[in-house]
Design a protein that fits this description.
The protein has 147 residues and is mainly alpha-helical. The chain is built from six helices and three strands. The chain is globular and about 45 Å long.
Length: 147
């Protein structure tokens, strides 16, 4: 087993200890389901990208572990989850982008805590690519709704 796969298994074990099952989906999206306690990772990505994606999804576990704090930190997402009409608002979209940014930060800290060495340049590029997708979604979607 190579170092990246070893690191992936270490993070997956951390997720399992938090009650989450890590599954691979071919040509799927990386995501987390708190209802099903599943973290889905796109199996079509390369090993290092899969590791980065798993760290990010585990960042969501850390961000969301205290619902009271979560509601205070991301009120737009919380309100949009309860009332789907509010999920079309700028407030919701900005709040969701903030949550995504924090999940990347927390995932990076988790790597350090688990003594996983990551290539910072590749990590930052992948993080920027993913966050840019969310930023475009937030701007374009809000423009269509409110434009």
């Amino acid at each position: 087993m190579d170092k990246i796969e070893e690191s992936f298994q270490k993070v997956a074990k951390w997720a399992q200890n938090k009650g989450f099952e890590v599954v691979f989906e071919h040509n799927g999206h990386n995501n987390i389901s708190f209802d099903d306690m599943i973290i889905a990772i796109n199996a079509s990505e390369g090993p290092e990208t899969r590791l980065f994606s798993l760290l990010h999804e585990c960042g969501h576990v850390l961000v969301c572990q205290d619902f009271r704090r979560y509601k205070e930190a991301f009120p737009g997402v919380w309100e949009g989850t309860i009332d789907k009409r509010k999920s079309r608002s700028k407030h919701y979209r900005v709040s969701l982008v903030e949550e995504e940014m924090l999940a990347w930060r927390r995932g990076g800290k988790l790597a350090k805590r688990l003594n996983i060495a990551i290539n910072e340049e590749k990590w930052n590029k992948h993080k920027a690519d993913c966050l840019y997708t969310y930023l475009r979604w937030a701007v374009i979607t809000v423009g269509k709704v409110h434009g």
